[in-house]
From TrEMBL:
The lineage of its organism: Eukaryota, Fungi, Dikarya, Ascomycota, Pezizomycotina. Transmembrane segments: none annotated. It comes from Ascodesmis nigricans. Belongs to the sulfiredoxin family. Signal peptide: none annotated. This is Sulfiredoxin. InterPro entries: ParB/Sulfiredoxin_sf (IPR036086), ParB_N (IPR003115), Sulfiredoxin (IPR016692). Gene3D superfamilies: Conserved hypothetical protein from pyrococcus furiosus pfu- 392566-001, ParB domain (3.90.1530.10).
Length: 127
């Protein structure tokens, strides 16, 4: 949550191309967890359930990933950022799923600076 103003439970859910989601912070990944998520995506029972366990496991799908959306007023370009959901994103990539379920929250450039600091200007090129 950024400055108490963004909550994913009220965010619009939509499908986004995995290739458009930027992940600027390198993740630390558990391959066993990723492989289990790939099994879940393929409709098989998961081989690994993390602690704490998710509320519900639905075969063939994973919970939506929280994504921050910034639309440049200067260029009109859309930027989508994920700062969490790294295991799900890696599982989608490994399973070769192109469109994924996301909860999309609109943000300003200043809000992104909370996560990215001054590097936001390097990532978002508005010239």
């Amino acid at each position: 949550m950024l400055n108490g103003s963004i909550q994913s439970r009220t965010a619009k859910q939509q499908k986004l191309p995995l290739s458009q989601i930027l992940r600027p912070i390198p993740p630390v990944l558990d391959t066993q967890k990723i492989d289990s998520m790939v099994r879940t995506l393929s409709g098989e029972a998961p081989s690994y359930i993390p602690t704490p366990a998710p509320e519900a496991i639905v075969l063939g799908q994973l919970p939506p990933v929280d994504v921050l959306h910034y639309k440049s007023p200067k260029t009109g370009k859309d930027y989508y950022f994920a700062f969490g959901g790294c295991h799900r994103l890696q599982a989608y990539d490994k399973a070769e799923v192109e469109m994924i379920d996301c909860k999309v929250m609109k943000v300003t450039k200043d809000m992104l600076k909370v996560y990215l600091g001054a590097s936001v200007d390097t990532i978002i090129n508005e010239d």
